[in-house]
Amino acid sequence: MSFVGFKKVSSADELKELLNIYSQQSQQQSYYFLRWLDRVSGIITNLPEDFSNSEGQFFNAELELRWKPEGKGYSILLLRANNHHQDSELGFKEIGGEWEVSEEQNAYFYGVDEKKLPTRFPKGFIYKNQQQENIKPKDIPLAQRNFFNKHTATVHFVALTLKN
Q: Could you say which architecture CATH assigns to the domain 3-97?
C-alpha cells in the first residue's frame, strides 16, 4: 500500500534535517530539483547551502518529498510507493483515501529522444553531480509514477522517481 502524507515544519533548518534523514535512509542515489521565482536548479545531487524561499523536490526510487514556503516555514508533501512506519513517526499525516501507484513510466529529457513524447524537460536544463560536474541526462535513470485514488481512478499526483 502506498503512502501520501503531509507535514509542516517551521524553518529551513527543520526541512534540511528531514531531507537529510530521508537521504541517509536511501541506499540509492537521490536527486533534488529546486525552484525560485527567477530560476531553477536543474536536477542536482546535493542540496545547496542556501535553498531558503525555494520550492523543491527530493526524489529517489522509493519516494518523493515536495516542499513549498508557507509563512515562515514549509509545507511538505510525501509520496511513497510503499508505506513505511517511519513516515508517521516523523510527523507525516496521511492524506485520506486509498492510494495506488501506477507502474513506472519513462520521463524523457529534451533532445535525448527525438520522438514526440508527452513528458520532457526543457533545453538548457542543468544536471550536476556531488562535485558540481555536469551529468549526461541519459545517465540519470529518471521515471515517473502516478498516485491515484483506488475507488475513482483519478490521478492526483505525478511523482518523479528513478528506474529500479
A: 2-Layer Sandwich (3.30)
